[in-house]
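The material for today's practical consists of a large collection of protein records. Getting from the letters to the tokens is the skill we practise here. To make this concrete, we reproduce a full record directly below:
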Amino acid sequence: MVLNIKTAGGNYPVYIERGSLKKAAELIGAEHKVFIVTDSGVPSVWVDCVRSQFPDADLFVFPQGEASKNLNVYEELVSDMLDCGISRNDCIIALGGGVAGDLAGFAAATYMRGIKYVMIPTTTLSQLDSCIGGKTGLDIEGTKNIVGAFWQPSAVIIDPDVLSTLPERQFAGGMAEAVKAGAIRDPRLFEIFEKENYKDHVEEIISRSLKVKKDIVENDEREAGDRKLLNFGHTLGHALESCGGLESYLHGECVAMGMIAAAGPGLKERLRKVLRKMGLPTKAEADKEELSEYMRSDKKASDGSIDIVACDEPGKARIERVSFEELRRRLLA
């Protein structure tokens, strides 16, 4: 299956096919020098599969985890690219999850004022959400993605077979983003999680999730309007990721708890049952004052208020501008 993404920042194909990792060179093309960016947690079987197709490629491996999305690792990456002679005509391959995509994508957006990059996502979270849309970024002083750029990939290669090596917790945590996509725009997708064994529908879940994001991103590439709907669960979720003592939670787990807090009465209990069935947390004990401070640093915040996404039933999400006082009442009660 091929999805074609069309944005002002560039048009590109998204290949969704089992076994497609083995055809990466065929899909990407070999006319450019390749620089592979991956993290220490990506199994060697997948790294070797890509490297074998680009024997002259240079490789940059950074420590696994959100903590690597910082200016120091970014500087190491672009310095290595410079030392390897990467030019404006060459190509970065981001092989890994969302952190690899953010870091490599931001390097591609800024190195020599922009070079080509290809996403090869290896986690559920990156395959069904972060691999498209063009958002790249780094975390500064505990605030997520506060430095970044919109930079669209040239292609995305999604091979569901690589999910076979994911730990169960990461597999389920990433699926929280698909639950989000179903909640905001696709009732059938939400129904898969609610009424069926979602593990029997992995490829359908990936394609339906990406179609939700594709439709939104193509109409609002730079988050001026409806793209904000994709932040359902993320306002509180990002704050939970940054909050002291909660660093052990995965991104998807924080989004899950954020969705529960932001869901309307008609959706909250249904959502809670879905997440519990998937083994995802639905509530975190956290310091309310600390959470409030992190949300005040959110990019969507200004003049004492912030945009949040509310959702009362699957397919009916909306954006609301609320004061921080109202946010505390709704989300932190």
